[in-house]
From TrEMBL:
Protein name: DUF3109 family protein
Cross-referenced InterPro entries: Rv0495c (IPR021458)
Family named by the database record: Belongs to the Rv0495c family.
Species: Bacteroides reticulotermitis
Length: 193
């Protein structure tokens, strides 16, 4: 592990390879799991703000869930997470004609309709950020639905932290990411990677 400021980073984030392969997985990470995506408290207002823009892209079932319980709920671990449809799909999912799942928020962002990308936890996946008192832990989350992403990442030799440069900067800042890159160079020079 390495530490930058109050953030402890697992070496798996540096060593492991990853590159999303949406054609292979069809966006399964937005559908599978035991809870919705983690949401930061300040993101709830953003989720509610984008609703009118993305509403027509959401399924009638998702609209009903949002009407009844809102965009988030507290899961069994006490974490704030996106609401789910049928205990499975994130309420913000939408599908194309091939059955591929997309995030309606990200779709609107890419079309220039909103200024919120999506919850940072989604943007960071397969990294999960944990709160450990005065420290945050940055860990690589392995999940069988992402097997194709691991294979593509290995083929392209793309480490997790490079694949997730943009969301890591979004979460921790440009200077922090620069320090991470410098730490990786130093670890390589010392043959510790």
């Amino acid at each position: 592990m390495i530490q930058i400021d109050d953030v402890v980073i697992s070496l798996d984030v540096i060593r492991e390879k990853f590159l999303c392969d949406l054609k292979a997985c069809k966006g399964e990470c937005c559908v599978e799991g035991d809870a919705g995506a983690p949401v930061e408290l300040e993101e709830v207002a953003k989720l509610e703000e984008v609703l009118p823009v993305i509403w027509d892209d959401l399924s009638p079932e998702a609209q009903k869930v949002i009407d009844e319980q809102g965009v988030v709920y507290t899961d069994r671990d006490g974490d704030l997470v996106t609401s789910l449809v049928n205990g499975k799909d994130c309420v913000f999912t939408c599908y194309d004609e091939t059955g591929c799942c997309f995030c309606a928020i990200e779709k609107a962002y890419r079309a220039g309709k909103v200024d919120f990308y999506k919850p940072v936890s989604c943007h960071l996946y397969p990294i999960r950020v944990g709160d450990y008192g005065p420290y945050k832990g940055v860990n690589y989350h392995r999940w069988s639905v992402c097997k194709a992403a691991v294979l593509l990442g290995e083929k392209e030799n793309l480490p997790v932290y490079k694949f997730l440069k943009e969301p890591l900067i979004r979460k921790f800042g440009e200077a922090w990411y620069q320090e991470l890159e410098e730490a990786v160079v130093e670890l390589k020079e010392r043959n510790l990677l």
